[in-house]
Amino acid sequence: MPRVHAAFLIHVLTASGAALALLAMRAAVAHHWPAMFAWLGVALVVDAVDGPLARRFRVADKLPRWSGETLDLVVDFVTYVFVPAYAIAASGLLTPPFDVVAGLVITITGGLYFADREMKMPGNYFRGFPALWNCIAFYLLLMRPAPWLAAAAVAALAVLTFVPFRFVHPMRVVRLRVLTLLLLAAACVLAAFALTRDLHPGLWVTASLCAIACYMFLIGTFSATVKSSVRG
Predict the structure, then answer these.
(1) What SS3 class is residue 125?
(2) Are the C-beta atoms of 186 and 204 separated by less than 8 Å?
(3) 29, 65, 106, 153: most buried by Cβ count inside 10 Å?
(4) Nearest Cα to Cα of residue 209 among 173, 182, 175, 184
(5) Could you tell me the CA-to-CA distances from 196 to 50, 87, 142, 223 in Å, in that order?
(6) Largest CA distance in the chain
């Protein structure tokens, strides 16, 4: 019985991501963007640890009544898609009516992505852009591009949601995992620093964050290209 209780607490930990999303939404409504991203960052940590814990304690076997996979998708949708969609629509990054249109596009494409039973490719890569709109919202509010450029970025990423290219899963893709995790850790530190500066961290921090984002976005496709070349 104690093991069953421990398994249920892991479900509670996963579900706490939805509570963190609510706190992030409250901050977003008040236009406190650093606070919003701080809450979403905590939710990201929860999302990173609950899966390994669930597998370690065999939660699916001990509590078959509750679907950890469904719970994870619900929480991921509100933290990765819904709250960031609101932030992008309400932050003034885009001019009306494109702000509302962008929010609608993000929520619709994000919902479809999380319902895709084939969202994973061989090697544990994501298929297409994996609806990481929390990261996109962070970079848009960090760089504050021209409204037309922000709208173009949202449109392009919405399309890439359905393009079958490989996007790295930092925790599960074995190839270059150490390098990927080191860069991800560096990005977390730099992002935290940016939040302490109200998203005005200076050129070098912004450039470093952009370089790491380019690596994360392209490494899956690059690895596939290199692998094909070696086979050829």
Answers:
(1) strand
(2) no
(3) 106
(4) 184
(5) 27, 19, 12, 35
(6) 57
Tokens of 111: 């919902």
Q: Which two tokens stand for residue 130?
A: 């994996």
Query: Is the distance from CB of 154 to CB of 107 less than 8 angstroms?
Result: no
Residue 44: partners with Cβ closer than 8 Å, 6 or more residues away: 79, 134
Helices (H), ranges, the chain:
2-29, 33-56, 59-62, 68-76, 83-90, 98-114, 133-143, 147-160, 177-196, 203-231
120-121 and 166-167 strand pairing: unpaired
pLDDT of residue 228: 46
Give the residue from 133, 121, 116, 113 showing the smallest Cα distance to 175.
121
Tell me how crowded residue 228 is: count the other CB atoms within 10 A of its CB.
Answer: 9
pLDDT of the chain, 232 residues: tens digit per residue: 566 778 889 999 999 999 999 999 999 999 999 999 999 999 999 999 988 888 888 888 888 888 889 999 999 999 999 999 999 999 999 999 999 999 999 999 999 999 999 999 999 999 999 999 999 999 999 999 999 999 999 999 999 999 999 999 998 899 899 999 999 999 999 999 999 999 999 999 999 999 999 999 999 888 755 554 445 5
Sorted by sequence, the CB contacts under 8 Å of residue 33 that are 6+ apart come out as 27, 87, 91, 141, 199
